[in-house]
Amino acid sequence: MFVSRVINKLRTGFDKLTPYFVEMKYLIRSQLRYSEHDLPGRLIVSMTSYPPRFPTLHLTIKSLLMQRVRPDFLELWVAEDDYHVLPGNVRELENDGLIIRLCEDFRSYKKIIPRLKESKNDWVAIADDDLYYWSTWLEELVGAVKPDKREVICSRCHKIEFIRPSLPAPYTGWIFNFVAPNEKDVIFPTGIGGVLYPPGVFFKDVCNQNIFRELCPTGDDIWLFWMAALNGATFRRSAARQRFVVWGGSQECALFNQNALFDNYNDRQIANMLKKYGWPFSATDSVAGTSAINER
Fold first, then answer.
1. How many domains does the chain have?
2. How far is residue 15's CA from residue 21's CA, in Å, rounded to a whole number?
3. What is the residue range of 149's domain?
4. C-alpha to C-alpha distance for 101 and 85, rounded to whole angstroms
5. For the Glycosyltransferase 2-like domain, which residue ranges apply (predicted)?
6. Burial call 43-64: b when 16+ CB within 10 Å, e when fewer
7. Residue 120 — φ and ψ, nearest 5°?
């Protein structure tokens, strides 16, 4: 118990120092070593944000600009009505490679839907706006890619538990932050850790805003999971061993508070997807995560 308290205090202290570490490291970024990715196509890191997260947004972006493996583009998608309040310390990062794009307000979907509407032929790594990404985060995602497989790679995931084949247990009954999945586990990527999607991985409805706004208005992770699985993808966690550091105060407006804690909103959105599309893996193979797209 004593050791646990000491470790927690040390972690809390480290978390409080992380913003200063990012700022200091950014000052010497020209001396850091970078390398190009080896994926067959463009690699785009895509993210979004909104005003409650703007005060710490520059820290997340700086950590992404210091990735050891460089993407071809780092894009920040911002709703048109929010652009005028985007802080100067974010806008000035356009000089260092950030690309700021304006789009319709799709809420959390802004991180990927506008990008997919432009092209579905790129590798897209989505990142959240409220945490520190260690320097090898993108390298670990890219390094986990197996070119001969249609896989979605994630840094953080949950293990889906089942009531019976093809019927997931309630969301709060899943195993959160699952770190040791095997091939028989069905894992659920979470956007907070970052997810790498290969070209052409999604089902045809992925950009249909009428459907996702009705079925999963705040559950972009749920929507993207279904859209990839319906198109034959499986899911795998990278070998990431880092602990996620979230900026202080940035989670006060997190969708998790609404989705998982209030009225089990995630369960309602999952139920909507089951009703519309069914379970995206075959009943006999749902434990192994075998897609049912060929049966449709």
1. 1
2. 10
3. 2-295
4. 14
5. 55-161
6. bbbbbbbbeebbebbbbbbbbb
7. -105, 15
DSSP structure class, residue 32? S
What average pLDDT does this structure show over 153-160?
96
Whether residue 125 has pLDDT greater than 80: yes
The Cα-based distances of 290 to 123, 225, 228, 262, 278 in angstroms read 22, 13, 12, 32, 14
Give the phi and the psi of residue 78 in degrees, each rounded to 5.
Answer: -125, 140
The pTM for the full model equals: 0.90
The separation between CA 86 and the C-alpha centre of its own chain, rounded to angstroms, equals: 22
Distance CA 106, CA 97 (A): 24
Rg (CA), the chain: 19
Q: What is the CATH number of the domain that holds 281?
A: 3.90.550.10
Contact by Cβ (8 Å): 230, 204: no
Which among 59, 36, 35, 69 is positioned nearest to 138, based on CA atoms? Answer: 69
Give the chain's largest Cα–Cα span.
56
